[in-house]
Amino acid sequence: MRLLLSALLITFGLSFHASADEALSLTPQETYDLVQTQGDQMLFIDVRDPVEIMFIGFTDVADKNIPFMLADRSKFLSDKGRFAMHPNPDFTASVEQALKDKGLSKDALIVTMCRSGSTRGKPSADFLLERGFTNVKYIDHGFQGSSSKEGKKAGMRIVNGWQNDGLPWSMTLNPEKIYQP
C-alpha cells in the first residue's frame, strides 16, 4: 500500500510540474518503484555514452540507452584528461521512437539517468522539456552516485546513486537496449 501511495504522490507531483521550465529529480528508489508499478506507462532512459556503460555497468530496468552526449574519440582534452563530448544529433528522434515503440505520447513520464545526475541527467531532461515533452524527470545522483569526500575511499563514487542504493544492475549489457547507431 505504501508503495502504491508513493507512486501516486510522485505521479501527481509530476503532473503539476508539466508546465515548468526545469526538470525535477527523483531518487533512484522512487524511479525503481515507478517502473515496478507503472513501467508500461513511462519511459526510463539511460543517457550515458554506451562505452561508459560498458565499463561502469547498466540496469536492465531501463527501457533504453539513448545517449544525450557522445564521446568524440578524435578530440582528447589534455587539460581535463578526457575526450570531448558532443550532443547526440539523434537524441530527440530516438526518444520519440522509444515512446512510439511503447505506445506512449510526448506527455508520458520520461525519466533520464546519467552517471551522476547533474552533467547529462538533468540537462537531458531540461532539453526534452524545451522540445515539447511535458512530463520529464531525472534521477538525482544518477547511476554511480557522488564521490566520497574523505577517508580511504575519497574520490570514489560510493555515496548514493542507483548502484549504491542496492538496485539491480550488472556488467552484462543487453544488446537490445544499448544504443547502436
From TrEMBL:
Alphabetical list of InterPro entries matching this protein: Rhodanese-like_dom (IPR001763), Rhodanese-like_dom_sf (IPR036873)
Keyword Signal in record: yes
Record key words, sorted: Signal
Domain Rhodanese, first and last residues per copy: 95-155
Name this protein carries in UniProt: Rhodanese-like domain-containing protein
Signal peptide: 1-20
